[in-house]
Amino acid sequence: MKCVKILFVFINIIMLFIIVNDIQSGPLPPVDENLYRFIKENEKRPAPVGGYESVSKKIIYPDIAIKTHTEGKIYLFVFLNESGVVDEVEVVKGIGAGCEEATADAIKKTKFVPSVDQGKAIKAKFPVILNLQLPK
Questions:
Q1: Which domains does the chain have, with CATH numbers?
Q2: Considering only CA atoms, which of 112, 121, 51, 54 is closest in space to residue 87?
């Protein structure tokens, strides 16, 4: 009986990873990337109001990720408008178990200090890497 339960959990985990991988390989966000200026490594990036700690506090860790002890880095592109509001989040690489969606939702709920060029706020696209760790 114990083997059957373990097998059942194992099969469900495999199915979840297959579903998440299908979601990740879906279409790109419905934003016109040409309207957003790519902020490079050496340029001043937009910053979340309250720092990245405020983003981490907004992440609702998925139950399946807690059960499977899923942790790691999520790689994203954030599309930010002139007001500092996130228009879209593109997941580049994730860790599965619903962590990408939870991280993207937390970033979408975050207000940013907008990127500025020649004294004027601009639309920006910039990479973000967040390291997710199980809640303690």
A1: 2-132 (3.30.2420.10)
A2: 112
